[in-house]
């Protein structure tokens, strides 16, 4: 299935009886797949609006992220998402997986820049929320619900997003420590300072830790020099640490950093952490260390991403998710049985 309009998608879905899986650029092959028909969003690839003066845009789900950024850049703007390996990723795929990167420090997660959304449900209803509201599904903040829903609630048709100025220059400071507790001390010292950083990450590889702060705009270098020596840091490499054979995403507090590093190191893993947000990604060489890492970091929430082709285990909010699934996809057409707790 490859609809070219939302109306066509609605007609296809209304007639659909068997499970389907929406797919954008297909850049996340590790996401559990079953015997499902594929609904490609490649035909929904129009940038519907770019309101330069308002710093907003409306994009169909199948627009390649890189194409959208090029269009915005021509007007000195950007969509402040920087997922790892954006490659052929589409707007819809990034929203559906909430695939955020280091810019989350300043601009929030994927969902925080979505101001409106247009979805197609399994009964063929086209529902809209936020942005230019025509028909709302009463009571639900659809953009927040569908961000990270992994295609299990309905098809994301288009999104309205908020844009930001594209900085003409950036400067990054790196401070190194090879002791996890000392690294945390440096992080906390800088988290308390009134710094306007775009990115604030920590990396840990081969027994060596780095705290990275990126500043942008005309005063980027001066801001960076107030913190330390400006370094030549490749942020693509930093973001790449979020992907791997097996990745465990840990949601906790910034002060958990030394525990996260020790748990990762014990199993040959690397770490990248949004230092001020308490979110860390541990990339492991294989799945053998997953259980031990989870146990070491319990009761923090650990979601296993990448590499393991298995249904994510049930989460504390499972009952709520079940109810949402029943509300949005009662026919269980969208990836049934594939997501958290077999939703
Ligand atoms: C149990 C479980 C298992 C999963 N397993 C997989 C899997 O195997 N594979 C996969 O691809 N995906 C999986 N997912 C989905 C995946 O975790 C999410 O899609 C994705 O990680 C959401 O990322 P996020 O960056 O939006 O952060 P979230 O996970 O939404 O948030 C991370 C943490 O930050 C907090 N937070 C977020 N926003 C704010 C805010 N504005 N203010 C304050 N706190 C905030 C949250 O409360 C949470 O503690 C799983 C999800 C769950 C619940």
UniProtKB/TrEMBL annotation:
<dbReference type="GO" id="GO:0071949">
    <property type="term" value="F:FAD binding"/>
</dbReference>
<dbReference type="Pfam" id="PF01565">
    <property type="entry name" value="FAD_binding_4"/>
</dbReference>
<dbReference type="InterPro" id="IPR006094">
    <property type="entry name" value="Oxid_FAD_bind_N"/>
</dbReference>
<dbReference type="GO" id="GO:0003824">
    <property type="term" value="F:catalytic activity"/>
</dbReference>
<dbReference type="InterPro" id="IPR016164">
    <property type="entry name" value="FAD-linked_Oxase-like_C"/>
</dbReference>
<dbReference type="InterPro" id="IPR016166">
    <property type="entry name" value="FAD-bd_PCMH"/>
</dbReference>
<protein>
    <submittedName>
        <fullName>Glycolate oxidase FAD binding subunit</fullName>
    </submittedName>
</protein>
<feature type="domain" description="FAD-binding PCMH-type">
    <location>
        <begin position="1"/>
        <end position="166"/>
    </location>
</feature>
<keyword id="KW-0274">FAD</keyword>
<dbReference type="InterPro" id="IPR016169">
    <property type="entry name" value="FAD-bd_PCMH_sub2"/>
</dbReference>
<keyword id="KW-0285">Flavoprotein</keyword>
<dbReference type="InterPro" id="IPR036318">
    <property type="entry name" value="FAD-bd_PCMH-like_sf"/>
</dbReference>
């Amino acid at each position: 299935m490859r609809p070219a309009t939302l109306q066509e998608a609605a007609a296809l879905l209304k007639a659909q009886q068997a499970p389907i899986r929406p797919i954008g650029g297909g850049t996340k092959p590790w996401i559990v797949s079953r015997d499902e028909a594929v609904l490609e969003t490649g035909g929904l690839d129009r940038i519907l609006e770019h309101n330069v003066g308002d710093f907003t845009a409306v994009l169909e789900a199948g627009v390649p992220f890189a194409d959208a950024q090029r269009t915005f850049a021509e007007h000195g703007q950007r969509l402040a998402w920087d997922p790892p390996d954006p490659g052929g990723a589409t707007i819809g795929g990034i929203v559906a997986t909430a695939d955020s990167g280091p810019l989350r420090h300043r601009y929030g997660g994927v969902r925080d820049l979505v101001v409106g959304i247009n979805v197609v449900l399994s009964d063929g209803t086209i529902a809209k929320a936020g942005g230019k509201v025509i028909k709302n599904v009463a009571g639900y903040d659809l953009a927040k619900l569908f961000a990270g829903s992994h295609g299990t609630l309905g098809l994301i048709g288009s999104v309205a997003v908020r844009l930001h100025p594209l900085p003409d220059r950036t400067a990054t400071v790196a401070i190194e420590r090879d002791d996890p507790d000392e690294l945390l001390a440096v992080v906390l010292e800088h988290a308390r300072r009134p710094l306007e950083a775009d990115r604030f990450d920590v990396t840990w590889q081969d027994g060596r830790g780095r705290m990275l702060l990126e500043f942008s705009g005309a005063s980027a270098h001066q801001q960076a020099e107030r913190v330390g020596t400006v370094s030549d840091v490749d942020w693509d490499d930093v973001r790449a640490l979020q992907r791997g054979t097996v990745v465990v995403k840990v949601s906790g507090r910034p002060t958990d950093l030394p525990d996260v590093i020790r748990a990762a190191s014990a199993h040959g893993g690397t770490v990248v952490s949004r230092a001020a947000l308490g979110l860390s990604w541990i990339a492991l060489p294989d799945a053998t260390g997953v259980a031990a890492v989870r146990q070491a970091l319990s009761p923090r929430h650990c979601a296993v991403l990448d590499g393991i082709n298995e249904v994510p285990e049930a989460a504390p909010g499972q009952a709520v998710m079940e109810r949402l699934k029943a509300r949005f996809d009662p026919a269980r057409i969208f990836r049934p049985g594939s997501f958290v707790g077999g939703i």
